[in-house]
Structure formats: structure tokens, C-alpha cells
Design goal:
The protein is α+β, with helices and mostly antiparallel strands and 226 residues long. The protein contains 10 helices and 4 strands, in the order H-H-E-H-H-E-H-H-H-H-E-H-E-H. The protein binds flavin mononucleotide (FMN).
Length: 226
């Protein structure tokens, strides 16, 4: 019979994955993540929660070394990660044009993915409009709309890094880049379509050296109980 880990064992495994995960600066360039393991990491991204269930992201798995080289001069935060990572992902988020309540993408999500009836889609669309226009006041600001989507891609980012750590794979989240320059290159390469922007990046692979000991503020400095 399949042995099920106890709750205590699972807590220990999950916490040890959080301790194992660190911002890995350099990967072993010859050690590659298997297709199966990488599919598992992507699946953790795909299954991530999103506001209203609209999944505003796209994950670009950048394995082309020539394109990685082109990004290097404008990606100061990944100088050693870009050339050595087994897998390198650029997380895209939709811009305002793809996120407005009457956009083709939102209508597609409600009808074809969330499988809402016309009536339910109408109700959800009205609630979504009110949220964007009045409650969060995002609708009249292109950048705010993009950042709202990008915030959600960071949930996928976190889930992918945790999933990777649980199976012994290292990662590094990356925000150290010139957004305009990266987007220009990805557009020139035919990767970045209209209606998307670059939210963040993440490198995956196997560490070449052990990291420094993890440092964090004490729990009482980062929590408020009321
Ligand atoms: C959104 C985000 C962006 C980051 N950008 C970079 C980066 O560009 N380059 C880098 O080496 N580390 C980057 N980091 C890693 C952080 O510096 C690191 O997570 C933090 O110092 C805590 O260390 P630890 O992750 O090793 O525990 C980033 C982290 C996050 C969450």
C-alpha cells in the first residue's frame, strides 16, 4: 500500500524546501533539468490562482542561447544566471487592452475556460468592471492595469520556485533588467506580441556552490495579530 506522509513530515518537507530555495546566482551549466521535472514546474505556474480567474500571464521558456546573449547587456540582475541556467523563463503579463471587461480575451476566458453561461458572464463582467473602474481604480491607467496583472504573475513565479525547490531544483527570481530594452529585443525576436509586457524573469538549474546562511527578520517584526 502507498505510504502517506504524516502532516508533520509534510510540514518538514515543505519548510526544508523553503530553506533550500535561495536566489541562486550561478548554475552548473552542464546539469540540465529533465523535461518531466520542468513540466512539473510549469504546471505549478499554470495552476496558480489569479484575480477573477483570468490568468493574465504567459510563460516564455527561453532556451535559445543567442537570444539569452542579446538580453545579457540589459539584464544586470542575471549576469551569471542567463548564461548558465538550465531553463530561463520570462513571465509576461497582459496589458490594459487584453484585460478590459469587453476585450476578446476576457470574453474568451469567461465563455471557453471558466465555462460561464451568458447570464453568469454578464454578471461577472459587470462586477469585474466595477472592480477595475471604481473599487481598485485601475481602468484609467495603462501602467496600473499592467502592474495589476504583473502582481498576479508573481504568484505563479513563487509557486514555480517552491515547486522546483521541493524536487531539489534551484532558482533565481529576476527583476534586474531594463524593461523597455528587454521588451524591444523580445519584440524584434517575434516573441513579445502586442497586448503583453514583461513582468519578471526566473532562472532554474542546479547550484554550483552552497549559498550563505538564510537571513530573515524575526516573526514578531513581520506579523501583527489583532
Ligand atoms: C521580485 C524579485 C526580484 C529579484 N531580482 C533579482 C535579480 O535581478 N537578481 C538577483 O540575483 N536576485 C534577485 N532577487 C533575489 C533577492 O535578492 C533574494 O530573494 C533576497 O535577497 C532574499 O534572499 P534568498 O532568496 O536567497 O533567501 C529578486 C527577488 C525577488 C523576489
Amino acid at each position: 500500500m502507498k505510504k502517506i506522509d504524516s502532516k508533520e513530515q509534510r510540514k518538514e518537507q515543505i519548510l526544508s524546501a523553503f530553506y533550500f530555495r535561495h536566489a541562486c546566482k550561478e548554475f552548473d551549466p552542464v546539469k540540465k533539468i529533465t523535461d518531466d521535472d520542468f513540466a512539473f514546474i510549469l504546471e505549478a505556474g499554470r495552476l496558480s490562482p489569479s484575480s477573477f480567474g483570468f490568468e493574465p500571464w504567459k510563460f516564455v521558456v527561453l532556451q535559445n542561447q543567442a537570444i539569452r546573449q542579446r538580453l545579457l547587456p540589459v539584464t544586470w540582475g542575471a549576469q551569471r544566471q542567463l548564461p548558465t541556467a538550465s531553463h530561463f523563463v520570462v513571465l509576461l503579463s497582459r496589458t490594459k487592452e487584453g484585460l478590459t471587461p469587453d476585450s476578446a480575451y476576457i470574453l474568451h476566458m469567461m465563455r471557453d475556460i471558466l465555462k460561464l453561461s451568458e447570464e453568469m458572464a454578464k454578471g461577472k463582467g459587470a462586477r469585474y468592471h466595477n472592480f477595475l473602474a471604481n473599487e481598485f481604480k485601475l481602468m484609467d491607467n495603462e501602467r496600473a492595469m499592467f502592474e495589476w496583472g504583473a502582481r498576479q504573475t508573481y504568484i505563479a513565479l513563487g509557486n514555480m520556485m517552491t515547486a522546483a525547490a521541493l524536487i531539489g531544483i534551484d532558482s533565481c527570481p529576476i527583476e534586474g533588467f531594463d524593461k523597455d530594452a528587454v521588451e524591444r529585443i523580445l519584440r524584434e525576436e517575434g516573441i513579445l506580441e502586442d497586448g503583453f509586457g514583461v513582468a519578471c524573469m526566473v532562472a532554474f538549474g542546479y547550484r554550483v556552490r552552497e549559498p550563505r546562511e538564510k537571513t530573515r527578520q524575526p516573526m514578531e517584526d513581520v506579523t501583527i495579530w489583532v
